[in-house]
Amino acid sequence: MIQTFRKNQRVLMLVVAILTIIAFVFLYNTTQLDELATVESPTIYGKALTPVAIDRQVKNYQLTMALGQYELLEKLGGTAQDQNRALTEFIWNLLVLQHQSRELGIEPTDDQVAERIKKIPAFQVADQFDPLKYGQFVSEQLAPRGFTERQLEDVIRDSLRLEALSDIVEAPAALGDGEMQAVARAFQPVSASFVRFERNAVPEKIEVTAEEVAAIHQQNQAALSTNETRGVRCAVFALPADLKLEGKEKVDALQKLANSASELTDGLARAEASLEQLAAKAGAKFVQLSTFERSGESTPAAAEVLDRETMSVIAPAAFLLPKVGAASDVIQSGDAFYVLELTAVNAARPLTLEEARPRIEAQLRTQKADQIFTAGATSAGNAIRSAVAAGKTFDEAAAAQNLKVQKLTGVVAAAEATPREDQAIAGATLLLKEGQVSNVEPAPWGAFVAQLQSRGPVDQKTFSTREAEIRESLLRNKRDFLFMEWLRVGREAAQITMPAGSQG
Q1: Quick one: pLDDT band at residue 16, thresholds 50, 70, 90?
Q2: What is the pTM of this model?
Q3: Which partner for 356 in 132, 231, 351, 381 could form a disulfide, CB atoms 3.0-4.6 Å apart?
């Protein structure tokens, strides 16, 4: 135990500090834990990962997010867009990190952990560690959900382990002069000729057969489904629209609203009354929202009273509530506070063939249009390259394909003032010699083929302003590569096994 913090704890009043409200929505998400818990007998280093161990690691993941340990999350794969994938990757990689740290004798001391905890922004006031904020976090955010200080300390230990191990693994990373010279090409002004392939030139009428639609529906039934929707009712604590406050007066007024919202959640937890009754007692507005999707988009029949920005905050929180009747903690959006109660869950269901037909037909038309466009652009691009290689000028080769040639003159690909379109075209010439023609390169409008006419000397003024940034970026990429390679080898040595069909 870290006595530095234990001795400073006390019973604190329930206060929601308006300027330091922390979004701990991940602390309430049990869906991921339920999904991992269904995996039977996963093993690592020859040992089974028990349900208790899985529970502990899921809590580590959730708490890591809540504490803002983003480098730990990012390096261990915990920031993937697919949350289940992110959770799985993070757990396996964290176990590898912990095992390898023990093997190398890397173990942060209690003092190191305590010092790092003091630097967490959530526990600071005016850039100084505030024991009261730490104690409030433990008593109000951790304890009610089964978390402990030990788990908080373990997250920080893992962050410190990662830093120490990264220093060892990434130490060989270095830059050579040749690498900077290669990058400097992006700061050389280039002149080039190019032709554009416009995607909108693809025929509009693309036939899709009923057989193709049926086949796609049969093969993708799991993915072709309705979106889950949810409904909530909520208590809204907001300042009167006609009340104009600034500075300390506004902060104090918002603090009172936050306190009232917090007291309402306490009343719900004690089952003193319904949300509607407690809202009326607190002087809050009571709102019943019709169903909406995870993104916050409402169903067509809905007539919502909350704006899109507020819904974008409320909806994710609603989708983390475990069951109908469950209530959220206080949620802040702008200058208002919300307490939600889940009233409806409409689970996703597979779409019938007729329901899915419009979506499938649109996807097939898009795929076929892409195939037609790609085939046409590739054929024309290859013809231009062959004609130039046979002695034709770029202009002559393009004219034979009924394409109009456009010009770039003195464009620096890496210059911030260079338009994106010109950057893309100039960038395609970086590895070309004068007179050479590029491959067909993708672009927002479709694609293009470019010929390098000439390349001038490096724009030293522009390059010098970016050199330090570029060096750091290249070095960071090398370090990341070394770490990912170390992690890959470490995972192989860990001999991770999962049941058939599970993600590992």
Answers
A1: very low
A2: 0.55
A3: 351
